[in-house]
Design brief:
heterodimer, A: about 280 residues, mainly alpha, B: alpha/beta, Dimethylsulfoxide Reductase, domain 2, Barwin-like endoglucanases, seven-stranded mixed sheet, six-stranded mixed sheet, 27 helices
């Protein structure tokens, strides 16, 4: 029996480490590299590999990277809890009581997912597989196409919007394969297929996975930020280096407010106005 | 034997696991469970267009001029289209008639579009068919009826293109005859003009030119003919300024308390049976003052006070050519006398125009009654109803329904399987006006375009296309309307010489004005005055006179499936969701009826049973009930509220008790018996007087004064007598930039509730259902309070009514802000009292501490079961979840949008550029909004005007809403 108790203590300790690792994996970098002194870096520092891949090998969850670890964690927790209850609650009343309390907690976790997901995790680092593996590193990085060429709505509208296929076809009606490739590029072929279906009875648009997303109670306007001279990279990270788009910033309120609070001295020189409004209602209405 | 506790300790010690160890392990385990739990953001897809049309920007609203399809008044409308969905209807500023306003019903037509109860396919005998099959079957059937009696039944259609399509249809089938009727009819006005002026026309009333208005039961601010236009015109004469303290005088004689009567300077209650006598008495007095021959009106006796009759005659005589007498009576003699009065006053050609008559009512009761009689007798072989539902909204609807089942051909062009369509073999799914092409010409010379804002949601077709298809010319509505404009409208106007240019311009502006030819002048023919008499039957002992009326919210009932309108409370009775029998307090006392008791109203074999409502100002011996209710399946929508999604908790869903009153439209005398059952009504306002219930002091939330007092006292409103009690405990807020404020002119406000629906549409305000309204859980951000005043003996007989739009006052010293334990409601740097939904935990302290009771709490997630209705949501406004507080924020999304635009364009915000939804929609322009820090702004000048005051100013909360004292032009 004593041995069993020791085992529980040990596994408990282990799961502390586990929990810490998990929470580290999800935590935001403390401060965006964004102030006057840091030589006006336009880019967010890329999340450190350590943050992406924790020492014990757990990664930040992205939908296309499997949910194995969640199940493992759940399994360990389940074992610990049920073991603990069985061990301690040697009468049926306390067993039922403990189960009830745990049930409430588990219920909150399960139901809370619907409304409160954003309280527990931000989506930083989220980099889903896209239906067309569009490389920003090629278009924005190598070819140096301006962001606003495709995302032209960013300066007109609150939403930057993913370009419609006709914008892609401005070039890709001619460019059907990367230089040196033999035959048409399969990714471009997907685009052409979508384009050619435009007048058919069942058009097949490109269904992108949305990367940067704010909770439904937040209003964000791209056009005022673009007009204010804020570079795309300041929020979206070094997008010109990304093969697959990743949510670079935590997009949390604290992160937003940090920039809005900057005074004239602290703000990067290329901003037209230092800081932003701090009234709650500006974003929450 | 060790106790259980001892045993436990022993076990624990044995195992080496103590309580603290257990708790540690458990804590770690739970942390691990939480950590490992799948706290993942929901997946989201983003699907851009394949080929984005030019001019369409995701996230940016497109505004399109169109015409409101709510009623035949055809006001100009602006449709806000966001990402392919129309999400808001607003008034079209450039429309010469509606002048930028839009009524509650008109704005709510938007929700009718997103109604999954609409017909989705054309039907033959209840089976879905293709349009081609439907057309083939129906046209073969009509051809087969050649030589037999076939009728085409419509309501008044002031739509030139649709009328051209009908003409084409009638041309293709010469045996078909056209019958026009109106559920809310003006037949008597038309018939009276036939007699008095030799032409069956409806005058175009011009209230803006009238300095004296005498109304006889014509609710022209609420429902009568073209209320938005009339309200806008009426309000022009109701705004005295300190420079010229003048306003029009308005006397209203009516049997029930209508919106118009409530706004009159003098309201006189008149029983329906005395209506003729009252009009005749005024006419006799007018004739004597003017010195013209007194019309022979027969015996008159009225209980209306002689002073009021003299008063009415005098103000009319004093304002020859600039006065107006209107009546909503269905009595031909009354209308003839009204015409006579307008004629001797020289009003024709000034305040009434019959040379360019209004085209919004042309229905004939005699023609429709004739059709129904023929149908009942079996002489009609076939009938085609175009957007008409006489089985419901005709007094003989039940008989007609029986006759329909015997006919060889019954066709209904309808947007839902309504009472009439349910009896029709062929039903064509009709499109909503927001899905169709068309046009409207309410008054000659003012023609507006109806253009679609969305592709048809269902497999429906506009009536225009269905009729042309039946006429054998398959043509889409766009081509038809364009061709009609090319041949009929383009030649009449002189502004443009190129049709394409003209057409594009018309689509952009939405309205085209041209010089329409005037009809020949015609003068009053005295022969019409022969044989005038009171046709109302005498009331026997124990019987009641009956008044049926079109209510503000449901009007004729065609929008009865609209939750916004169902919940919208009547402005005077403040009851939502149901109709009810209105009793005078004296009758109620005599019969022992309390509010909510079920009452059976009987006339002959017909009867209905609905709850009673006790209404101050109802004459004794008269009961009134609203039309528009009691539609089949309409009550079912109530079952959807508050929400049926909640499965675990018992949610009270109230049953409605409504009745169709149309069968009683022509019944003037009824008997009434009180039932035993109680059915409490859902009232939004439960206090009728401004008196504080505890202190018994008048709190003067609404300030009133007479015109004389106003002219004398430049300070006005007594605002100095009730000043604020200092700055209070808190530091003053600083407003370095803008400071948003609103002004509400109580003199212009008619209480029409257009702002309430505008706010509901703009701010995603849920409908909560009857049971929730009964618990005072309605969610309106702006409400229109109705207060009675008058002495204790006088008020029950004839109360003075005042309306006050009440919304968040955006106090500088806001009581709500200081009590929020989580700082979810705070003060912005622009004077707005902010409510941060995601921060709110729902303690409702703020609601308790608000002196204006304008904060609303989400008791549920008001998700809609009908997902189609979600398409109406405004993406710029958060949909609030259960457990959070919400309230008016001056439509901050609109403020922010303009702020951003002005910053990008590097300019200042113009005064009037920002219009919250309520301000925009107001037909009378009672509301204005702006930056009070800008001393040149309209709102800043109104805030220092002699009429300005703030509600409950003595509390020291410093509201940002400035009311303008109500001035009544009463005789001293």
């Amino acid at each position: 029996m004593k041995v069993l108790g020791k085992i529980f203590k040990l596994t408990g300790l282990l799961s502390v480490v586990l929990a810490v690792c998990l929470s580290k994996a999800q935590a935001a970098p403390k401060k965006p590299a964004l102030n006057a002194s840091s030589s006006q870096s336009l880019e967010l520092s890329q999340p450190a590999p350590a943050a992406m891949n924790s020492p014990v090998g757990f990664k930040v969850k992205t939908p296309d990277e499997g949910t194995k670890i969640s199940w493992l964690g759940m399994g360990i927790a389940f074992f610990l809890i049920i073991g603990g209850i069985l061990f301690w609650a040697n009468d049926i009343q306390s067993f039922a009581g403990i189960l009830f309390v745990l049930g409430l907690f588990a219920g909150f976790l399960a139901l809370g997912q619907r409304h409160y997901y954003h309280y527990f995790a931000n989506n930083q680092g989220y980099a889903p597989q896209q239906p067309i593996s569009y490389p920003h590193v090629l278009h924005a990085g190598k070819l140096k196409i301006a962001c606003l060429y495709c995302h032209y709505n960013a300066e007109k509208s609150d939403v930057a919007s993913i370009p419609s296929v006709n914008v892609c076809m401005n070039c890709h009606s001619l460019v059907r394969s990367a230089t040196g490739d033999s035959g048409p590029n399969p990714e471009i072929s997907k685009l052409v297929k979508a384009w050619e279906s435009r007048d058919s009875a069942a058009p097949s648009p490109v269904v992108w996975e949305r990367v940067n997303k704010l909770p439904s109670f937040v209003r964000f306007s791209h056009r005022i930020h673009v007009a204010n001279g804020i570079a795309c990279q300041e929020c979206h990270g070094p997008i010109q280096t990304m093969t697959r788009v990743r949510q670079a910033a935590p997009l949390s309120m604290g992160w937003c407010i940090n920039c809005h609070r900057l005074t004239k001295k602290e703000a990067p020189a290329h901003w037209k106005h230092a800081g932003g409004p701090l009234d709650c209602i500006v974003c929450h209405h | 034997m060790p106790s259980l506790k001892e045993k436990k300790i022993e076990t624990a010690l044995k195992s080496g696991l103590t309580r603290s160890d257990f708790l540690k392990t458990m804590g770690v385990g739970l942390a691990a469970l939480g950590g490992a739990c799948d706290w993942r953001w929901p997946h989201a897809k983003a699907v851009p267009e394949i080929n984005r049309p030019e001019g369409v920007t995701p996230g940016v609203a497109r505004w399109q001029a169109s015409t409101c399809g709510g009623c035949s008044a055809s006001c100009g409308a602006l449709v806000k289209i966001r990402d392919g969905r129309p999400i808001k209807l607003e008034g079209l500023k450039s429309h010469p008639l509606s002048q930028g306003g839009l009524c509650a019903r008109g704005q709510a037509t938007l929700l009718d579009l997103y109604d999954s109860g609409r017909l989705s396919e054309p039907l033959i005998d209840g089976k879905k068919v293709s349009w081609a099959d439907w057309d083939k079957a129906v046209s073969a059937k009509i051809k087969g009826l050649h030589g037999k009696q076939v009728r085409l039944v419509t309501q008044t259609l002031p739509n030139p293109s649709l009328n051209a399509a009908i003409a084409e249809f009638l041309g293709a089938y010469p045996s078909v005859k056209h019958v026009v009727y109106d559920p809310i009819s003006s037949s008597s006005i038309l018939d009276a003009h036939q007699k008095t002026h030799g032409r069956r026309v409806l005058p175009h009333y011009q209230f803006s030119k009238a300095k004296a208005i005498v109304g006889f039961d014509a609710d022209f601010l609420g429902t009568w003919i073209s209320p938005v236009e009339f309200s806008a015109d009426w309000a022009k004469g109701r705004a005295p300024t300190s420079g010229s303290p003048k306003m029009s005088r308005h006397i209203h004689f009516e049997p029930r308390v209508s919106l118009t009567g409530s706004n009159a300077d003098l309201r006189v209650q008149v029983k329906p049976s005395e209506e003729y006598s009252t009009v005749a008495s005024v006419a006799i007095r007018l004739a004597r003052i003017l010195g013209v021959a007194v019309p022979r009106v027969g015996e008159v006796s009225t209980t209306a006070s002689p002073e009021s009759l003299d008063d009415a005659a005098q103000i009319l005589a004093q304002h020859k050519k600039e006065s107006l007498v209107v009546s909503g009576s269905s009595d031909l003699s009354v209308q003839i006398l009204v015409n006579w009065m307008n004629s001797v006053l020289g009003n024709y050609g000034n305040t009434l125009d019959i040379q360019k008559p209004a085209q919004v009512r042309s229905g004939s009761e005699t023609a429709m009654d004739g059709f129904v009689r023929e149908a009942v007798s079996g002489r009609i072989a076939g009938v085609i109803f175009v957007e008409a539902n006489p089985v419901y909204d005709h007094p003989l609807g039940e008989e007609l329904a029986k006759a329909l089942s015997k006919m060889e051909l019954t066709v209904s062009l309808s947007n839902r399987l309504d009472e009439t369509a349910a009896h029709a073999a062929f039903v064509a799914a009709d499109s909503h006006p927001l899905e169709s092409w068309g046009d409207a010409e309410p008054v000659p010379g003012v023609i507006t375009i109806i253009q679609p804002a969305i592709r048809p949601l269902f497999n429906s077709r506009p009536a225009l296309e269905t009729l042309t298809a039946l006429a054998g010319k398959t043509q889409n509505a766009y081509d038809f309307v364009r061709a009609y404009w090319k041949s009929h409208v383009f030649p009449k106007q002189k502004a443009s010489h190129n049709f394409d240019h003209f057409w594009d311009g018309s689509l952009e502006s939405g309205v085209v004005s041209y010089e329409a030819p005037s009809l020949a002048r015609s003068s009053f023919s005295s022969a019409a005055l022969a044989g005038l008499k009171n046709l109302r039957p005498k009331v026997k002992e124990g019987e009641f006179e009956f008044v049926s009326y079109a209510p503000i919210n449901l009007y004729d009932g065609h929008q009865a499936f609209n939750p916004w309108l169902e919940e919208l409370p009547d402005p005077v009775t403040r009851v939502s969701w149901e109709n009810y029998v209105q009793f005078s307090p004296a009758d109620a006392k005599r019969l022992g009826i309390t509010e909510g008791r079920m009452v059976r109203v009987t006339s002959g074999k017909k009867s209905f049973e609905i709850p009673a409502q006790i209404q101050l100002g109802m004459p004794e011996g008269v009961v009134a009930a609203a039309l528009g209710y009691g539609r089949i399946t309409a009550d079912d929508i109530a079952a959807n509220y508050p929400i049926t999604k909640i499965k675990f908790f018992p949610v009270e869903i109230a049953k409605l008790h409504t009745a169709n009153v149309y069968p009683f439209l022509n019944s003037s005398v009824v008997s009434v018996s009180a039932g035993t059952e109680m059915h409490p009504l859902a009232k939004i306002q439960r206090y009728d007087f401004q008196k504080d219930p505890y202190l018994q002091q008048n709190r003067h939330v609404v300030r009133e004064e007479t015109l004389e007092e106003y002219a004398k006292n430049a300070a006005g409103g007594g605002s100095s007598s009730n000043s604020s009690s200092g700055d209070g405990l808190w530091d003053k807020h600083e407003y370095p930039g803008h400071k948003w404020a609103m002004s509400v002119d109580l003199n212009r406000c008619s209480g029409c509730a257009a702002c309430v629906i505008a706010c509901q549409a703009e701010n995603n305000i849920p409908t909560v259902g009857k049971s929730e309204v009964r618990k005072s859980r309605d969610m309106y951000w702006i409400r229109i309070d109705r207060y009675y005043s008058g002495s204790e003996t006088e008020a029950p007989i004839n109360p003075t009514v005042a309306f006050q739009p009440m919304t968040c006052q955006q106090c500088d010293n806001a009581p709500c802000e200081t009590v929020c334990p989580v700082a979810a409601t705070t003060h912005s740097s622009e004077g707005i009292n902010m409510q941060t939904y995601n921060r709110c935990v729902g303690t409702r302290y703020c609601e308790n501490n608000c002196p204006y009771k304008v904060r609303r709490f989400n008791w549920f997630d008001y998700d809609r079961d009908d997902a189609v209705q979600d398409l109406v949501l405004n993406p710029d406004v958060t949909v609030r979840q259960r457990g959070v507080m919400e309230k008016c924020n001056f439509c901050y999304q609109r403020i922010r949008d303009v702020e951003i635009s002005s910053q990008i364009e590097n300019r200042k915000i113009h005064d009037g550029e920002i219009q919250p939804a309520c301000v925009q929609s107001c037909p009378t322009q009672a509301l204005s909004f702006g930056d009070i820090n800008n001393s040149n702004s309209q709102v800043a000048s109104k805030a220092i005007s002699s009429r300005a005051y703030r509600a409950l100013e003595d509390l020291g909360v410093k509201p940002s809403i400035y009311y303008q004292t109500k001035v009544r032009n009463v005789k001293s």
